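Task: sequence design from structure.
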């Protein structure tokens, strides 16, 4: 039985604690949060204990979820990995590329696993639509969310766009040739809405828009490829496909919507992490993949900063 803990039990960490508390093969030993009242509330809900420091928690677990704000991922994960504790670190991996590389070195020295919380990988539309991705040439992603005071320690590229960067790079699998981007701070002192155009060396183009100041939640990816279009609605759990079909010497368009619905993606993510530690198999979302997403995010941020300085 693996002993688990959660550090940072705010909005998302609370759900991590809930999943561990009723998952086979794992025992939730306790939670820690710098906000003691919040830790107590979540611990009571999950029938577990409150640890009073990160160190105390880490001395009692084999695996840990780190769901603090991104700015703290590095310092918290560093202590855990140094003790050989396997970490599920929320996205974005870390605040900077250097911090991510540092954690990867520490993990390798101490034989500890790192999985990153790129949750959309576990969305039903990704498994449902996977067979339909046939060499897309143009990809359009929109990820819009209403404003909350959470995650304002980072910009919208690291907060939201990073999900689509990770998904697109998983589909295209080609080095990046060029990036252009624009973004503006609207409600915070960091970029709240951004648009990036990524050109890959194999000729694929991806347009990514992310906003955390929208009135509605909207999370879609559209893939245009030879003779077909695939639309993924991450919010509804629908996959839409339109294909050119040849019949009687001419062609027409056939389309359908496949409703995959929503399943508990976080449970799938945590369960995959627990299994990979349990049977010492590769993690579902590797540090290498998350580092690649972070590096691309920083290329986008550099372009945005360049434009801002030159406005
Ligand atoms: P939140 O502000 O609701 O929660 C963060 C919690 O961490 C708070 O309770 C805070 O008191 C606590 N905390 C801060 N510093 C700490 C420290 N050093 N040690 C222990 N606790 C500390 O934020 P949130 O929305 O839950 O986001 C947390 C993380 O999860 C962020 O990295 C965010 O990017 C990520 N996130 C991921 C997804 C996803 O789809 N995968 C969605 C939302 C948030």
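Answer:
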């Amino acid at each position: 039985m693996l002993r688990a803990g959660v550090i940072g039990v705010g909005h998302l960490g609370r759900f991590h604690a809930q999943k561990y508390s009723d998952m086979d093969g794992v025992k939730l030993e306790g939670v820690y949060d710098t906000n003691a009242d919040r830790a107590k509330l979540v611990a009571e809900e999950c029938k577990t204990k409150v640890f009073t420091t990160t160190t105390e928690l880490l001395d009692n677990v084999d695996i840990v979820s780190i769901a603090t704000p991104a700015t703290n991922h590095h310092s918290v994960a560093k202590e855990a990995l140094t003790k050989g504790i396997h970490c599920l670190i929320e996205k974005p991996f870390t605040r900077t590329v250097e911090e991510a590389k540092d954690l990867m070195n520490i993990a390798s020295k101490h034989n500890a696993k790192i999985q990153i919380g790129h949750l959309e990988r576990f969305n039903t539309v990704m498994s449902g639509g996977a067979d339909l991705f046939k060499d897309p040439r143009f990809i359009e992603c929109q990820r819009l969310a209403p404003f909350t005071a959470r995650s304002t320690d980072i910009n919208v590229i690291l907060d939201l766009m990073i999900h689509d960067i990770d998904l697109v790079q998983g589909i295209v699998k080609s080095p990046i040739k060029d990036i252009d981007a624009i973004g503006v701070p609207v409600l915070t002192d960091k970029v709240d809405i951004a648009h990036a155009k990524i050109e890959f060396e194999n000729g694929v183009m991806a347009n990514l828009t992310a906003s955390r100041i929208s009135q509605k939640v909207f999370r879609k990816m559209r893939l245009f490829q030879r003779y077909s279009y695939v639309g993924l609605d991450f919010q509804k759990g629908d996959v839409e496909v339109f294909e050119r079909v040849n019949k009687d010497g001419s062609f027409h368009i056939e389309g359908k919507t496949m409703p995959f619905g929503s399943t508990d993606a976080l449970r799938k993510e945590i369960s995959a992490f627990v299994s990979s530690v349990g049977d010492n198999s590769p993690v579902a979302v590797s540090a290498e993949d998350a580092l690649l997403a972070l590096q691309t995010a920083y290329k986008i941020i550099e372009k945005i900063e360049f434009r801002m300085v030159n406005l």
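The chain has a mean pLDDT of 96.
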